[in-house]
Amino acid sequence: MDSNLNTSEILVMGSGPAGCTAAIYAARAGRKTSLITGPHQGGQLMITSIIENFPGFPEPVSGPVLMDCMRRQAENFGVQVLSDTIESVDFSNKKIKKCRGESGTSYEAAAIIVATGANARWLGVSGEITYRGAGVSACATCDGFFFKNKNVAVVGGGNTAAEEAIFLTNFAKSVTLIHRKDSLRAEKILQRRIFDNPKINILWNSVVVAIDGDGKKVTGLLLKNVQDNSKSSLPMDGVFIAIGHQPATDIFVGQLALDDDGYIITDGRKTSVDGVFGAGDVCDKIYRQAITSAGHGCSAALEADAFCIDINL
């Protein structure tokens, strides 16, 4: 037997809430289950400092601690957790799906659960990484609560930015929407809500060129006007980057049906290929929450087990 061949009944790609939950349910169904962690073990929650809205944790929990608990729970049920990243897939055979990892290992399984997630697009400016989780965020739903009566900014001009800005008005003292153009791309109904909300101010034709802080938290933004290149400083307690997400689906082009934004198209949890299922942010562009991803993982595993039964495995 090839020592570089890993076989399982259900193979899970991704180690965030969707992937770990899927692996737990698959293993509890009695299936030989392997989980491939991907390049960032634990997914996006590994850069989330405080989580207060995941059921079962009465006190705040850090993202890394939550994901460590999920991984250990999966391992306790016999899941084989492997540190590798899948670089190519072949889903042409209904009963045996083939994948290859960057490590050189080949993987074969009857059913695949894709939970590779989506990454927030960042600005790439000074201070952004330094203060991520300390005033810099890409999720208002996750972190808005921590900015009660604070002054915050949202960067972007599409639906996501508009929705984030509106949501933040539930907590923040003021919300400044920063957009590089002189008009928003967001739907008209969202634009009306933005313009009608007294808490929201818009800075047109402006981009963030740096995020300032005091070493512990964000204190302000350095802005540039794209029309005259003038620069200005804007005191701010936090900034939410809302310029979109990029689903981790490059290796599935030509293998699975994707929408125009690159997200996997699913019917329930089923993809366009029998025996391949999608879970979490890789197919969810709306909610992007740990709890909804975990729910996806559960249902994907149940569907994968049913598929294995159908093929008499």
Structure description:
By secondary structure, the protein is of the alpha/beta class. The chain has six helices and 17 strands. The strands form four sheets. Strands 1, 2, 3, 4, 5, 6 and 17 form a seven-stranded mixed beta sheet that branches. The chain has a five-stranded parallel beta sheet with strand order 8-15-9-10-11. A three-stranded antiparallel beta sheet has the order 12-13-14, with no helix packed on it. β5 (97-101) and β6 form a beta hairpin. 44% of the residues are buried.
Radius of gyration: 21 Å
Overall outline = elongated
The portion of residues assigned to helices is 10-25%
Q: What's the oligomerization state?
A: single chain
| Whole-number mean pLDDT | 95
Order of helices and strands: EHEHEEEEEEHEHEHEEEEEEEH
DSSP E strands, number: 17
Structural class: alpha/beta
* Largest β-sheet summary: 7 strands, mixed
Quote the distance from N terminus to C terminus. 21 Å
What fraction of the residues are assigned to beta strands by DSSP?
Answer: 25-35%
Sequence stretches where pLDDT stays below 50 over 5 or more residues? none
Please tally the helical runs, counting DSSP H or I stretches of 4 or more residues: 6
Primary descriptors:
single chain, 313 residues, alpha/beta, 5-stranded parallel β-sheet, 6 helices
Map the helices and strands.
Elements: E1 5-13, H1 17-28, E2 33-36, H2 63-76, E3 80-82, E4 86-90, E5 97-101, E6 106-114, E7 118-120, E8 136-137, H3 140-143, E9 151-155, H4 159-168, E10 174-178, H5 188-196, E11 200-203, E12 206-213, E13 218-225, E14 231-235, E15 238-241, E16 245-247, E17 276-278, H6 290-310
Parallel strand pairs: 1-2, 1-6, 2-3, 6-17, 8-15, 9-10, 9-15, 10-11
Antiparallel strand pairs: 4-5, 5-6, 7-16, 12-13, 13-14
Helix pairs in contact: 1-2, 1-6, 4-5
